[in-house]
Design a protein that fits this description.
The protein has 416 residues and is mainly beta. Helix content is 6%, strand content 44%. The longest helix has 19 residues. 50% of the residues are buried.
């Protein structure tokens, strides 16, 4: 049914986009980059100003898209995502300003569950240095030329590490770290986390024995030490970049092994994490003596339960969806400042010092990032249908998608 809707929509969208594509995209109009899942550092933060007066705001363009729960990487005026079309997983590049499809790269694969995401790939592609790194729901990892979609190399990370797929498929987006692309296949015997040469696809190293979860690896610096932040089914931890050993760890489990969200760094030595199904939230403080880390729990509560949407941090306060209801916590103490507004299992970004919320019903909402009270500033329809996918924004152009549609909004501060 999803694929039929996508095919029927193509004929309609040709009429809509033909006029739009007659306008040339000047170099000055090409937006900045958003390299992958939740932007730079995977923090869900867009630092540039955005348009906050939304009277008359409507999509620049809207068109059908294949299935899947991925977001977009944006670079050089192009948006890259992965989707399900019939029996193929498809990486597609689109013109950011017009929505025109520029190229596709496809292979035979279909991941589907009867609940918890439906059909299609889950992991957002990552852009780096003219290449796109895309991971399919069944473990197919491809490095593609960002200009043409040509395959540079490919490998199936589940086959390579002898890992079993997860109940809801591979969801962790590839991380570029130096010359390596880091993924979490969850293989046994030291193959839970794997690094591949990002130019050749050769496996460089692997580490840990953990069953993986659904979060994406991150690279951060804590107490002056570069490390990978890794979430597994039973813990989250800091993994040494140089020797690939565990620097510190904290036990953490979520119902159905569904730890899906991203850790968040607070300052130089604190880490926040939250998940749903009653798990709640925690802030840890790290200390270091010589080369040994110690972990102290600062606070833990159930006032923030991020089931499938990660929180954001702004001026000492945490904003996120507590099982579908927007909430604000004091990052230092865990105190609940306010809670309200039922947005469902949508997503939250921090953009221009405000909260951009996509609701589960496909609306786009602007909310003040203030600990004083919930203040909704604007709301407009975005896409039709259940919307779990994380939005992406570069150069003020916001992209929203779900399993059926995608749309672009001009949120540049000077836009009218």
């Amino acid at each position: 049914m999803l694929s039929m809707r996508w095919m029927h929509g193509v004929a309609l969208v040709l009429l809509v986009t033909a006029a739009v594509e007659t306008a040339a995209q000047t170099p000055a109009a090409i937006p900045s980059n958003w390299p992958g899942f939740r932007g730079h550092d995977r923090a869900g933060v867009y630092a540039e100003p955005i348009r906050t007066t939304w009277d008359g705001l409507a999509p620049m363009w809207k068109k059908p898209i294949g299935g899947g729960r991925a977001s977009f990487a944006i670079a050089d005026g192009r948006a890259f995502t992965i989707e399900q079309r019939l029996q193929q997983e498809v990486v597609a590049a689109y013109n950011l300003m017009t929505g025109k499809e520029l190229w596709t790269n496809a292979w035979q694969a279909r991941f589907s569950t009867w609940m918890g995401g439906g059909e299609g790939p889950r992991a957002t592609p990552t852009y780096a240095d003219g290449h796109v790194y895309a991971l399919g729901g069944r473990g197919e990892l491809r490095c593609l030329d960002a200009a043409t979609g040509k395959v540079i190399w490919r490998i199936n990370i589940l086959d390579d590490t002898k890992a079993k797929n997860l109940r809801w498929g591979m969801a962790g987006s590839p991380l570029i770290a130096g010359d390596a692309v880091i993924v979490q296949p969850g293989g046994p015997a030291g193959r839970s986390v794997a690094a591949y040469d990002r130019r050749t696809g050769k496996r460089l190293w692997s580490a840990l024995d953990d069953k993986t979860a659904y979060a994406s690896p991150m690279q951060v610096t804590l107490l002056g030490v570069p490390q990978f932040l890794i979430v597994t089914a039973d813990r989250f931890l800091g993994l040494s970049v140089d020797r690939r050993h565990v620097l510190w760890e904290f036990p953490w489990s979520t119902g159905h092994d569904a730890s899906t969200t991203q850790p968040m760094v607070i300052g130089d030595n604190r880490v926040f994490y939250s998940s749903g199904y009653g798990a709640g939230a925690v802030v840890l403080e790290l200390t270091k003596a010589e080369d040994k880390f110690a972990v102290r729990q600062v606070w833990r509560n159930i006032r923030m339960k991020n089931r499938q949407s990660s929180s954001v941090l702004h001026e000492g306060f945490i904003y996120g969806l507590d099982e579908g209801i927007l909430a604000c916590l004091d990052a230092a103490t865990g105190e609940l400042k306010w809670k309200g507004g039922r947005y469902g299992h949508g997503q939250v970004l921090l953009a221009g010092g405000q909260l951009l919320v996509t609701t589960e019903e496909g609306e786009l909402v602007l909310v003040a990032a203030s600990p004083e009270k919930l203040q909704e500033l604007a709301r407009v329809p975005a896409v039709d249908g259940e919307t779990w996918n994380t939005p992406a924004i570069a150069g003020g152009i916001l992209l929203v998608r779900n399993t059926r549609e995608m749309a672009a909004f001009d949120l540049r501060a000077e836009a009218k």
